[in-house]
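User: Second chain of the day. Same drill as before.
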Amino acid sequence: MWSTFYLPICFIPEDQHAYEIGQAALELFEAIPNTTQNIKVEPLTDDQARARVKIQQLAHEAGISADPVLGLTPAPSKNSWSELDRLGILKPSDPAARPTDAAPQSASRVPSGPSVPNPKTMPTRSLSATLHQAFKRFQGYLQKEFFRQETGHISPWGRIQVRQIKNLQHHHPDQLLSQLDATAVGELIGYWRRRPCKLGSTEPISAKAASHYLGTLMRFLTWLHSTSEFEWTKPQAFNDFDRRIRRLPSDHAKRSLEQVDTFSLDELRLLMRYGQPFDRLLLLLGLNCGFGRAEIASLLVGEVHIRKGHSPREQEILGFETTDSDSFIKRIRRKSGVYGEHILFPLTVQALEWARERREQFPDFAKSSRLILNEKGAPFDQQTKGSNANQAIPNQFARLIERIRDDGQEVRPLSFGKLRKTASDLIKRHSDGEIAGVFDCHGEPVKTDSLSDAYTNRPFGKVFRAIRAVETYLGPVFAEAGPTPFSPQPQAYTKRSVIERIITLHEQGLPTGQIAAAVGVSSPTVSRHIQQFREQQSSTPVE
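Assistant: Same format as last time:
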């Protein structure tokens, strides 16, 4: 009676890791061909069916799984438990036969037994999945998550993360996800903590770069734990891993009194002297408000309040008296979501009025419109055709420094972002670190008090006082702009030193031809610069 029926037994491997490796190898093995040959299976008798259920009950009570879903026995068909599906010969990578619907059972033929898990809910994720496969899937997730409908491109931050994931693939060898236990995860994290060398060199990466890559790695592992695409769970000690980036002796080689690169007063004077109107707009927004590329590009028309003071209640909160002769920028910083206010230098007001007149020449002028556009009327944060971040503002500033250096003047080739640091350093110098944090619109200006914003108003009045103090300090810089700082300036391709030499010789009474010969330019060029000088002199207001 028992010759045609066998009880399946589930074996639990003693070495789970070795079992998973073997299982992965079987899933990749494709040597066994498919076949259409059917196996003839005789139907069970009533006695056999009852005996089978009895054995299943006994096995269940003993803690042994006899579930047909495991693929150890033929699965019952949807018609009855006495009929078995015809099975073909399966490859190791083929899924086990599974019923598509719950099988109706006859109470007279099959007594009720232990519940059987729904096969549709059983995991189908492969044990052969690898780390590099997961990296590629995460790239797809990032491209979808950071895609912006309004631009038709992935955001710059999304592109940076995708690029960093590609670099992670180059640094970390591929391995089975089943091998990615606590020790392996700790090694992945430690690899970046210890600051590996740049690929193809013996120079370690910077602490900042290591921090960025480690952050991307942690975001990847968090996604890998939460996604249903892979059978991987982060170890219990995941949040306890040490993530401090190692400091190297070379990091301290540049330590000096000036720990942050900032522009000196003489360098700021040169930037103002050589700057065109747009250059000066960038310079003033950076120094007055600590604006970087993103803040300038996203500034709206309605966020600029020209000659409009605060209400009495607002002045009470500020602890600072304002009048309608004062001007402000009031906005929420997009990066941190923090509200900020900046009282404006008089020269910054002139720059913004120049920018507003320029903006009115383009369509869609409204309070919700971008204030500062390029010559084609496009925003400065519009992505390039290759979906890269817009570098127009940093490039404009770099060209200004190049002009100054080409003219034999000494100025360090610092990036545009150093203007923001220069402004923060000046504010801190004339107040303190908390006021500098409020000036920068940081999310937590008081590092030792995370609840300060929950119980108190930010001290913008103190920020205004510090800005006024910085304004006095920058007086020599403003003087370099001349009487008409935003009128058309001499062409940038003529060196400033040459222009100044032309004006000096003109005031000495030399004719145009002699001036041209003395400075090495054409007579029309000399005439043009003399005419521009006369126009500036005539437009200078008489006190």
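The chain has 20 helices and five strands.

User: Great, on to the next one.
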